């Protein structure tokens, strides 16, 4: 009977103090009576294997004890959809903010890889805290059975369209935020690109023409606004009227900037004293054509986005 | 009739088991309440249910009768019988009313289902 006693003591271990005696006494009596019935039926004592099988049929002591306890879920199925949504919002905010706050350090620290890992672990640390806190809040809400009506407060009149055309992939948004942030860092000299071109065994320093200075501020404003908008889109994971109008406005301003850039005399300048060679002059001209083509491509992207956003705005 | 009965042996898969358990779970409470119109302790209740064809394991039955007691559908008392302390359960007044109401509901469901299944 040692096995039975061990089983009962294990069930007891997993029960709260106020339930221990009551439940284990009832369970023990039931088990012993069952064994007596079996023994009477077989006309002999149960062997170890038969006792073990009987206990196996009962189930793991932890599960038996758990069956007596209410509230066996961290977040019940009633609260789970709201919990999942809250996690998505919170994690999107945390990741967005983590990227924005980490970028300056990544580009200014000596070791880019080191600061990248440090930023990653900091973000992971924050994500875990947020995850834990949201889980605790929802656990308490469901434990006290509160907030369900407020969480799911809705009216059919106020439901907005959730068309797949208006949904946004969060990963794409994250990618765009990183690209915009890298551009902004470069635009403000926080990071530098290799700016020499190897030409006829000479390294020719390349720089932007002075005309770019005229659009420095407006580009900063547009890109910073785009980052903020993308963080908002990252959180919402969908288009709203406000985000569409803002995006259209930003695209129109971008087109204005592109027109201004298109009117520049020169985009790229090779260092003047190296331009004695006629081929070098041709290289400079070719580089300017490449930049002109890139600007043209960006203009096409802006026009496409404008068209696509105007279509989306009809569905909101 | 002309219809063949499908048993668990025909579909001995996990989905069937889950569906069967779900179906049974709903009627367990009614069966337990009905059986506790007479006084029983845990093991005798289980034996009686099994003798009538309702298989139920201790891990399900005992917590269920505790819950029903907490919901004031049952009353209980500890007594000694055959040199062993046992907790005897029986229906409370609320339990009796609930059993009557659930029995009516069961009859409605049975009639409706019979109509659907026929």
From TrEMBL, chain A:
TM ranges: 86-107, 119-141, 168-187, 215-236, 248-269, 289-307
Keywords: Membrane, Transmembrane, Transmembrane helix
Tagged with keyword Membrane: yes
Superkingdom of origin organism: Bacteria
Name recorded for this polypeptide: Uncharacterized protein
Source organism of this protein record: Pleionea mediterranea
UniProtKB/TrEMBL annotation, chain B:
Keyword DNA-binding (UniProt): yes
Domain Transcription regulator PadR N-terminal per the UniProt entry, residue ranges: 29-100
Keywords: DNA-binding
Annotated GO MF terms: DNA binding
Domain of life, source organism: Bacteria
This protein's record includes keyword DNA-binding: yes
Protein name in UniProt: DNA-binding PadR family transcriptional regulator
């Amino acid at each position: 009977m040692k096995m039975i006693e061990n089983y009962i003591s294990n069930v007891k271990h997993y029960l709260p103090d106020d339930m221990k005696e009551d439940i284990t006494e009832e369970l023990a009596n039931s088990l012993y009576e069952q064994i007596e019935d079996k023994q009477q039926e077989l006309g002999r004592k149960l062997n170890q294997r038969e006792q073990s099988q009987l206990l196996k049929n009962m189930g793991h002591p932890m599960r038996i004890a758990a069956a007596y306890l209410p509230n066996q879920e961290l977040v019940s199925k009633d609260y789970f959809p709201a919990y999942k949504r809250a996690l998505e919002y919170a994690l999107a905010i945390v990741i967005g903010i983590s990227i924005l706050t980490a970028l300056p350090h990544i580009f200014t620290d000596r070791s880019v890889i080191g600061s990248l890992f440090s930023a990653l672990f900091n973000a992971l640390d924050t994500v875990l805290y947020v995850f834990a806190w949201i889980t605790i809040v929802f656990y308490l809400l469901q434990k006290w059975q509160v907030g369900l009506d407020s969480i799911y407060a809705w009216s059919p009149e106020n439901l907005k369209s959730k068309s797949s055309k208006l949904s946004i992939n969060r990963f794409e948004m994250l990618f765009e935020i990183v690209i915009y942030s890298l551009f902004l860092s470069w635009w403000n000299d926080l990071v530098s690109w290799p700016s020499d071109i190897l030409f006829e065994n000479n390294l020719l320093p390349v720089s932007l023409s002075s005309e770019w200075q005229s659009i420095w501020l407006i580009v900063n404003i547009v890109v910073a606004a785009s980052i903020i908008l993308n963080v908002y889109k990252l959180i919402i994971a969908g288009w709203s009227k406000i985000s569409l109008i803002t995006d259209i406005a930003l695209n129109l301003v971008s087109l204005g900037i592109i027109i201004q850039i298109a009117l520049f005399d020169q985009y790229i300048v090779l260092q003047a004293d190296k331009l004695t060679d006629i081929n070098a002059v041709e290289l400079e001209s070719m580089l300017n054509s490449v930049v002109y083509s890139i600007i043209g491509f960006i203009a096409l992207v802006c026009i496409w986005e404008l068209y696509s956003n105007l279509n989306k705005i009809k569905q909101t | 009739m002309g219809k063949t009965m499908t048993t668990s042996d025909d579909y001995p898969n996990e989905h069937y088991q889950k569906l069967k358990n779900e179906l049974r779970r709903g009627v367990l409470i009614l069966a337990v309440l009905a059986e506790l119109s007479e006084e029983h302790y845990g093991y005798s209740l289980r034996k009686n249910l099994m003798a009538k064809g309702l298989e139920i394991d201790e891990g399900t039955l005992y917590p269920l009768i505790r819950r029903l007691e907490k919901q004031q559908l049952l009353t209980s008392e500890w007594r000694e019988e055959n040199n062993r302390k046992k907790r005897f359960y029986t229906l409370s007044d609320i339990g009796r009313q609930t059993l009557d109401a659930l029995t009516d509901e069961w009859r409605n469901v049975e009639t409706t289902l019979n109509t659907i299944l026929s």
